[in-house]
Amino acid sequence: MVGMDTKTALLDCAEHLARTRGFDAFSYADLADEFGIRKASIHYHFATKADLAGALIDRYNHRFLAQLYAIMDTGQTAADDLRAYIDLYREALDRGTRLCLCVSFSSARDSFDDATLAHLNRFHDDSVTWLTQVFEKAETDASVQGPSAPAREEAHALLALVEGAQLSARTRQSQDPFDLAVSPFLRRLSPPNPLQ
Amino acid sequence: MVGMDTKTALLDCAEHLARTRGFDAFSYADLADEFGIRKASIHYHFATKADLAGALIDRYNHRFLAQLYAIMDTGQTAADDLRAYIDLYREALDRGTRLCLCVSFSSARDSFDDATLAHLNRFHDDSVTWLTQVFEKAETDASVQGPSAPAREEAHALLALVEGAQLSARTRQSQDPFDLAVSPFLRRLSPPNPLQ
DNA sequence: GTCTATAGTTTGATAGAC
DNA sequence: GTCTATCAAACTATAGAC
After folding, report:
1. Nearest CA to CA, how far is A144 from chain B (Å)?
2. A141-151 confidence digits (pLDDT tens)
């Protein structure tokens, strides 16, 4: 693509570093080396590291929320939606080598200014809202078995489960802890329609 | 207590900083200020920051494992054990102001040397082992309801749940996300014996 | 928009007096 | 065991040439 601007490419590179090493664990010097540019040039695009943090999480919010509502539009049952949701976190984990940006930023929350923290909070709010809607759908289509708690509680529980599962898997540098951790929840889901 | 040595008191202070700010987010200068001592004096007790990290997680391992097996000796049912386990994480959260050291260290894993990472892995192994034993007990005393997965899967799931719930609550600086997230699991537990 | 050069802090760590 | 003094390295950020 012709118009792939430097700023966007820098964001991609910085996101990779934040998710593999952590936001505090890479410097402008690291980003400059990785990208093949000089430190000072990064400051042209993102005046401060706080600006970079804000741009990263803001872009992530929009991208992730779009994925969530794309799932909702495609999925047939609540179980389908939840399988796709868990798979987003599974893919983001990349065999235990990285975290999703949300878990990465949650871990490093003390480094951020208020604007970035507001973005992070909005991510959590939006996720809980989406999950609550899906669990409410589950109450009508009965595609999620098991002793059911209120949709809002189930939403918080699943969010905590996938984030904690990512943290465990990343610690062990392996996909296995993630798959083991989400397995009991997946057992509660009706199988996908084979005719679909 | 007369013999409360400086080294132990320093560990307490460093643990507090690691759990409220993160291990990378405090320096020897911060620790010196907080403790009321000079930077150089800390190096006398812990030559490098890596030594401090190792001492922190090692002490935490022993303390936490002792608490787990104390729970096992006291609890009547598997449900009692699991309630006490969740309460350990709930108390450690301190209304959203801090993480347990394990979640804090998992978040910052890239900063540690191999020895410290080995301690961190041992913590996870020991936790999963203990939880697996409790879920196996649940298969016989039937104090945990719901669609049950193999004990090892349930163990990984609950570990991920409490760690993820802590991360959410810490992000929001509130106890509520934790309580909401663990609520569906607590609903599966038989109530404690009121005659106990 | 990217560069060289550098300012000004802070970091973890050490030497040596007391 | 704690102190003062200092180190080299890394950090974020800025100034100014091209």
Report:
1. 11
2. 999 998 889 99
pLDDT digits (tens, 9 = 90+) for B88-106: 999 999 999 999 999 999 9
Q: Which of the pair, A16 or B147, is modelled with greater confidence? A: A16
**Residue of chain B whose Cα is closest to the Cα of A128:** B177
Reference B24, options B1, B47, B45, B50; nearest CA is B50
Closest by Cα among B106, B61, B63, B92 to B166: B92
Q: How far is CA A60 from the centre of its chain?
A: 8
What's the whole-model pTM score?
A: 0.97
Return the half-sphere exposure (C-beta side, CA atoms, 13 A cut-off) of residue B33: 6
Decide: B153 and A89 in contact? Cβ < 8 Å. Answer: no
CB contact under 8 A, A157 and B154: no
Give the C-alpha separation, B159 to B126, whole Å.
11
Amino acid identity, position A169: A
Condensed to tens digits (0 to 9), the pLDDT of residues B100-127 reads 999 999 999 988 999 999 999 999 999 9
Is the domain A50-186 a CATH 1.25.40.10 member? no
Q: Where are the domains of chain A?
A: 50-186
Closest partner residue to B156 (CB to CB) among A145, A163, A181 is A181
